[in-house]
Design goal:
Blueprint: E1 2-3, E2 12-15, H1 25-36, H2 42-54, H3 58-63, H4 69-84, H5 93-99, H6 105-117, E3 120-125, H7 132-135, H8 141-144, E4 147-150, H9 151-154, H10 161-170, E5 178-182, H11 185-193, E6 197-200, H12 204-218
Helix pairs in contact: 1-5, 2-4, 6-12
Length: 238
């Protein structure tokens, strides 16, 4: 589903990673539930219960680089074990999680075509420091993107407006020049409020078609308003 904040020229494409450049995240979590023999709500309930005890949102802390993955999994595994009255060892969680994801080759191809046409390209991902060696080899990051903004390294995450500002400022463009692709509605809404055109990925094939149509109608490759600014920064709360 496309949301157009305005109808000016698009010079820049910014994409999410998980659920956009991969198959849907829900499928990976379903496979995790099967592997660990978990009822559907168990992971979410354990995360909520553990967060209440800790007085923080543990997932947000993980994706903002404030807690190490092994400590996060230790806490979550202990909570699941208590909730289910049996031992749940999550030490291989990330290995199993990424085994449940495949590359969305059609979207990667669409981004590669945009790159070749001369669009400014950015990746904006809520991610985990320790997951870099797992996700980065799945796509040609350096070939596709001028810049990568990873929540785990900048201390904030979507849908905080600050991370979108960081993304478009480092790309040297205005939000009105950008189309942003994400699989979560609230992330797209935050981008739209800043002036970006958005593609909310609900059906992978439909989203690829929407992106290609947008670029065919409003694309202005090679006409970005400013230079790349790898040193751009915004005030990020910790």
């Amino acid at each position: 589903m496309t949301s157009a904040a305005q109808d000016g020229p698009i010079t820049t494409v910014i994409s999410d990673y998980g659920g956009v450049l991969t198959t849907p995240l829900m499928g990976a979590f379903q496979k995790l539930n099967e592997r660990y023999d978990l009822p559907d709500p168990a992971l979410n309930l354990a995360l909520m219960n553990a967060g209440e005890k800790a007085g923080t949102n543990l997932l947000f802390d993980l994706e903002c680089g404030r807690i190490a993955e092994d400590r996060f999994l230790e806490i979550l595994g202990a909570q699941l074990s208590a909730d289910l009255d049996r031992t749940v060892d999550l030490s291989r969680f990330s290995e199993h999680y990424f085994a449940g994801l495949e590359v969305n080759t059609a979207m990667v191809a669409a981004l590669a075509d945009a790159r070749a046409a001369g669009y400014r390209m950015g990746l904006l991902t809520n991610n985990v420091v320790e997951w870099g060696p797992r996700w980065r080899p799945t796509i040609p990051v350096e070939e596709l993107f001028d810049d990568v903004v990873d929540s785990a390294y900048v201390g904030t995450r979507k849908p905080d407006p600050a991370i979108y500002v960081l993304a478009y400022e480092r790309l040297g463009v205005t939000p009105q020049e950008c189309v942003f692709v994400d699989d979560f509605a609230h992330n797209c809404e935050a981008a739209s409020e800043l002036g970006m055109t958005t593609v909310w990925l609900q059906d992978p094939d439909a989203a690829v078609a929407e992106l290609r149509e947008l670029l065919a109608e409003r694309g202005a490759p090679g006409q970005a308003s400013g230079a790349l600014r790898a040193d751009a920064s915004v005030s990020i709360p910790h």
